[in-house]
Amino acid sequence: MILFNLASAIILILLGMRYLRKGLDRLFGSRLVEWLQKTAKNRYQAFLAGMVAGLISPSSSAIAMLSVQMLSQTALTAGRMLAVVLGANVGITVTVQLLTFNLQDFAGLFILIGGIGFLFLSRSLFKGTGQLFLGLGVIFLGMSTVSNAGHLAAGNNDIRLLFSVIEHYPWIVFIGTALLALVLQSSTASIGLGIGLAQGGLVSATILVPWILGANLGIGLTMMIAGWRSVEGRRLALGSIFLKSFGAILILIGGSAFASYLMALLPGGIDRQAANFNTLFNWLVGLCALPLLSFVSRALSYFIQSQTVEEQDEPGIFLDPLLLQTPSLALSQATREELRVLDHLKLMLRTVWAMRSGKTKPPISQVDEYQGRIVAIQSALKEYLGQISDENLSEKDIDWRFTLLDFSQELVIIATLIKRDLADAVACQAHSIKQLHPEDLPELEKILGETLERMEKATVLLMTKDARMANRFIQEKEQISTQYRSVRKRHLEQLTAGQKFDVNFFDMLNCLRRINSHLTAVAYSITRTSSAGRVDDTTAVPDPDETWLTSDDSSIDRKTCAVIRSESFVN
To answer: Please, are residues 290 and 83 in contact by the beta-carbon 8 Å criterion?
Structure first.
């Protein structure tokens, strides 16, 4: 029965941590990531910013996943991000401190207040605050259950004998609690379990020291799993594990006597001593590591080499189901996947355009592979974003989720345009006897360069959601449409009597224009949802340029090209 009570207490603590994290995420959402990006200008500011992040998101697993996401989406290096993590580890200790204030008797009050706010109030602010209080209440209820189970276990001679034996093997406790924190994905829950058992008289100060050290190591292990797929993520996790392990080993080498001495120096009862030791350890590791971060960062870069361009362009879908527990992080990762789609589109566009010379065989399989990746990512994004409940999102985040869904579909349309229309026109031109007019090729190259540049700008828009930049992006689209009409008019005016216009040139030109139109969808969404936006109507209006080619001559030319196209591409 004691084991069942302990297991239920762990579940309550984990459930409370989840409610607490979701409540804070509802209140702050993606603003935390944006604020960290602006604040972490140097290692010391990054450390202080990390402390605030740890207070706002008091979960080691959430901090681990947040760190890996920021590395993937920002220009922050592993060294700078490591300073954020070290600060966040200090901030998280505040939650452990709360566990020792003997608020278990008020668990019902916290749950009542939180339940009313979360279940019966509609505003996001009240629901988020309600979730926060509800989480704290459930955590305190879990701590009370652990303490009671500890008292019962202390009266069992066999269990008391087991813990007295374990007391002589601090390294086993250290490794065991590290694995426990990894399995629970929460160092706070692991330390809370130890404190609860200590309050029940089952665990001594000698066991608590390696217990707390092991739980802190578990944060690094969680980060390693979350960031294994990226080089910077592995560097970040390895740096955290190294620093925590180095500090822990220095303490464990001193043995049980040194552990008891350290705990005796700290004020309060055994529960307060454990919480203070946890806070002090993270402070010392952070402050001692900050001056050495440059050296640590260089060492990590040496041991974990950077990837080549080919290695970075890995196939696959990187949407972690664990991030669904923290909606803002799930949206952040979905945004990252959309950035990968833009990268694939840029490579796809360059590959197709390189076929224009006709000197090499068109790499059909490579173009098909890029399109296949894009379609697969869009399908996975649709399913992934659909799993994020509106209940845990702010209105702004709900709008952004729909923006990601809509824009991913636009990107699939762009991929289809490149493979089906642009590639056909390029292949037909490459095998055509008729060469492009001397003035036509520079115009195409210019619009192609602008298109690739706008893909880069779309990447920045996805990361920053800047309304002013979005407005400029929309204006650029109008400029390209005007440029398209001007080039088309010039080409037609240069035709002599009886001369046919170049269908392939018009196909390539029109396809590039349409790509730019679809890219602008993300800018319309940002201006619509931002108070700084100036564009209110995003309804699609038929573009007269879409139906420019209607003559019978065009049909004849297309039939002539059909044979060449069928030899070059299989649609």
So the answer is: yes
Give pLDDT tens digits for 166-222: 888 889 999 999 998 888 877 888 888 888 888 878 888 888 999 999 999 988 887
Which residues lie below 8 Å from residue 24, measured CB to CB, with a gap of 6+?
A: 56, 57, 58, 128, 132
- pLDDT score of 283 more than 90: yes
Domain boundaries, the chain: 2-303, 314-568
Q: Please write the tens of the pLDDT for every residue from 301-360.
A: 788 776 544 444 555 666 777 677 777 777 877 888 888 888 888 888 888 888 775 555
Q: Let me know: does 181 contact 241? Beta carbons within 8 Å.
A: no
525, two tokens: 């969404």
In angstroms, what CA-CA distances link 257 with 167, 173, 260?
Answer: 11, 16, 5
The label of the residue with tokens 């001369």 reads 499
The pLDDT tens digits of the residues spanning 40-99 come to: 677 888 888 888 877 776 666 666 666 666 665 555 666 677 888 888 888 888 888 887
Rounded Cα distance, 357 and 77, in Å: 40
pLDDT above 80 (res 36): no
Running DSSP on this structure, what letter comes out for residue 494? T
More confident residue, 561 or 280: 280
The total number of residues written for the chain in this structure: 571
How many CB atoms within 10 Å of residue 324? 17
- Mean pLDDT for the stretch of residues 423-429: 81
**Distance (Å, whole) CA 56 – CA 376:** 35
Burial 560-569 (b: 16+ CB within 10 A, else e): ebeebbeebb
Is the CB of residue 348 less than 8 Å from the CB of residue 362? no
Task: Give dist(CA 290, CA 42) in Å, integer.
Answer: 10
* pLDDT given at position 533: 40
Select the CATH number that applies to the domain covering 314-568 from these four: 3.30.70.20, 3.40.50.1240, 2.40.50.320, 1.20.58.220: 1.20.58.220
518: its two tokens: 């679809």
* Residue 546 pLDDT > 50: no
Residue type, 141: L
> By CB neighbour count within 10 A (0-12 exposed, 13-18 middle, 19+ buried), where does 527 fall?
buried
Residue 128, both tokens: 């988020």
Of 15, 192, 197, which is closest to residue 111 (Cα–Cα)?
15
Furthest C-alpha separation in the chain: 107
Contact 452, 512 (CB under 8 A): no
What is the DSSP secondary structure assignment for residue 41, as one 8-state letter?
S
Report the candidate in 77, 35, 83 with the shortest Cα–Cα distance to residue 56. Answer: 35
Amino acid present at 376: A
User: How far, in Å, are 286, 438, 442, 483, 569 from residue 426 at the CA level?
Assistant: 57, 17, 15, 21, 11
* Residue 411 CA: distances (Å) to CA of 339, 345, 370, 470: 10, 8, 12, 17
* Residue 382, C-beta contacts closer than 8 angstroms, at least 6 positions apart: 405, 408
- Residue 71: both structure tokens together: 């590395």
pLDDT given at position 172: 92
- If you search the block for the tokens 């959402």, which residue do you land on? 29
